[in-house]
Amino acid sequence: MVEYLFNTTRVLCWIVTNPANHLTKAIHIRHTWGRRCNKLLFISSEADDILQTIQLPVAEGRDYLWFKTKLGLKYIYDNHIDDADWFLKADDDTYVIMENLRYFLHQYSSDIPIYFGCKFDRYIKQGYMSGGAGYVMSKKALIKFATEAYDNSRLCKYKTIAEDQQLGICMENIGVIAADSRDENGLERFIPLPPVDVQPEPHVEWYIKWVYHEPEKNVSCCSPHAISFHYITPDEFYVLEYLIYTLRPFGAPVYESLPTKINVSEIYAAGMPDAEPLMVPQTVDSNG
Does residue 133 contact residue 228 with C-beta atoms inside 8 Å? Predict the structure, then answer.
C-alpha cells in the first residue's frame, strides 16, 4: 500500500534553508524523512555541493523569506511541474511523515486548485496555512500561482509581512482553496510546533489563538495520522525516525484501507473559490 501511494500520489518536497543551516539542519532532512519524497529539493541563496542546493538570487533574512518562497515556486513550476502531483514546502526544522501525507492526499484530485496545512484564521477570509508546519499544494494550484499570481502585483503584492500570510493572500485572490486538513474527528494533521508543546494538549498561547479551528478542551490536538511537526532539532529528527519507523508495540493495529475519493463539488462547497481580491494588511509576525 505504501509503495502504491508512492507511485500514484507523487510528492515533490522543497525545503527552504540558508547557508548557515545547510549542514547543521537541512542535511538531516536528507538523511531522514526526505528520503521518502518522490523528489527532494533544497532552496537557498548559495550553492552547496554536499547538500546540492538550488541557488536563487535572494538575500537571506526573515524580510526576504516571501521573495525566496515566490522564486522557489516559480523555479519548481519552470523545471519540475511534471515531476509530481503535489508540492510540499517545508522549513529546515520541519519533520514530515510522508506516508500519512500521501494517505491524506489520496482522496483529492491534484487537478483541483487547493492547498493544505495548519490553517490560521487571521487577516484572510478563507484562512491561510502556517509556513512552519509545512504546506502542500496541488499541481493545479502551483500552475495557477505561476501563471496568474507571480507577475500580477494586484493579486500578489510583495510586502514585508509573514511569508505564509503573503502566500495566503495570493492563493485566495486566484481562487486556490485553503482547505481543512483535519481528520474525521477534527484533530489536526499539520502541527506548527514540536510534539512536546501540543501533548497531551496544546499549551502555546499563540497557537491556540491563531489556529482556524479552536482545539477542544482536554482533547489531544493531533491526529493519529499526523503529518508534520515544526521546531524539530537535528537530534529529534532521528528520535522521531526511531519512534515512527522502528519502535513497534506488539499487537499494534495496521491501517491498510485508503480513504474514499472526495467529489469535486464537495471540495468547492467547503472552500471559497469566489473570494474577492484583498488589500495587503500591515506587517505582522504569525510565529508560524
Answer: yes
Grid cell, residue 50, equals: 554536499
Count helices and strands (H / E) in the chain.
9, 11
- pLDDT for 19-58, tens place per residue? 999 999 999 999 999 999 999 999 999 999 999 999 999 9
Q: What is the DSSP letter of 188?
A: B
- Across residues 192-207, what is the average pLDDT? 84
Q: How far apart are CA 75 and CA 84, in angstroms?
A: 14
Distance in angstroms (rounded) separating the CA atoms of residues 63 and 139? 27
Which residues touch 58 (CB under 8 Å, ≥6 apart)? 45, 64, 67, 68, 71
Q: Which residue did the predictor score with more confidence, 251 or 89?
A: 89
Cell of 72: 522557489
pLDDT score for 284: 37
Give residue 177's pLDDT band: very low, low, confident or very high (50, 70, 90): very high
* Cβ atoms of residues 267 and 177 within 8 Å: yes
Q: Which residue has the higher pLDDT, 165 or 124?
A: 165
Predicted model pTM: 0.88
Grid coordinates belonging to 216: 477542544
Phi-psi region at 175: left, alpha or beta (left = phi > 0; alpha = psi -120 to 50)? left
Coil, helix or strand for 1?
A: coil
SS3 141: helix
d(CA 162, CA 150): 17
Tell me whether strands 114-116 and 135-138 are parallel, antiparallel or unpaired: antiparallel
Measured distance CA(47)–CA(19) in Å, rounded = 8
Q: Is 213 exposed, middle or buried (0-12, 13-18, 19+ CB in 10 A)?
A: middle
